[in-house]
Each structure stands twice: as C-alpha cells, then as structure tokens.
Write a structure and sequence with these properties.
Blueprint (H helix, E strand, L loop, with lengths): L17 H14 L3 H14 L7
Helix pairs in contact: 1-2
InterPro entries: Ribbon_hlx_hlx
GO biological process, one term: regulation of DNA-templated transcription
Protein name: CopG-like ribbon-helix-helix domain-containing protein
C-alpha cells in the first residue's frame, strides 16, 4: 500500500568560515541541488564514515 512519508526538519544556525560556505554554494549550484540538501548530505556522509576508534 502506498504511504505518504513526511520528513521532519528543524532549524538550526551554524557559524561556518566564509570560504567554506562559498565553496559549498558553488558545488550546490554546479550539482543543481539546494545548499541545504548539500550540507545535509555532507554531514550524513561524514557521520557515516566517522572513525569511531578511540586510539
């Protein structure tokens, strides 16, 4: 059966270096995605590949 799924979002404010934001904006434009989508995907990728080894 088809079910409509709704993703819940929250608003947060983060301070980031100007150069990083400019680079992210450029990549988002090149890939035709929103800046928000790009940042979300980058954060998820980083978390998925985080080295959890304590040593």
């Amino acid at each position: 059966m088809f079910q409509v799924k709704k993703t819940e979002y929250v608003n947060k404010t983060f301070r980031m270096p100007r150069e990083l934001v400019q680079e992210l904006e450029s990549v988002a434009q090149q890939k035709d995605v929103s800046l928000n989508q790009l940042v979300t995907q980058c954060c998820q990728y980083a978390l998925d590949h985080l080295d959890t080894d304590e040593t």
